[in-house]
Design goal:
By secondary structure, the protein is of the alpha+beta class. The chain is built from two helices and three strands; from the N terminus they run E-H-H-E-E. Strands 1-2-3 form a three-stranded antiparallel beta sheet, covered by helices on one side. The radius of gyration is 17 Å and the shape is globular. The N and C termini lie far apart (about 60 Å).
Length: about 100
Amino acid sequence: MGMGPAQQGKKGRPDMTNTASLEIEFAFTEYDEHYNAADWFKGGVQTIYEAEDAETPEEAHKILLEAYEGADCEGVHVFWYINGKAYKDSLKKPSVE
């Protein structure tokens, strides 16, 4: 079964760009089983979906960092791993007042 022109990349090869979502995992500076990482971002879970659909890990990180609201009232921060690489500059944002 062949591919249509829209599915082919340069020189007739399949276009493999962004065929799978990025793998994003979240961690907290303190653990509580009731925490949901989406609560720390403007846009909530939709922001996380947008980051997962980004073209590169750097673009995903930028999306998350721009939407990150900082630590909660108890000082708990979220940081993330994208494709296994830790991104912890979110820890520098001030706490929510």
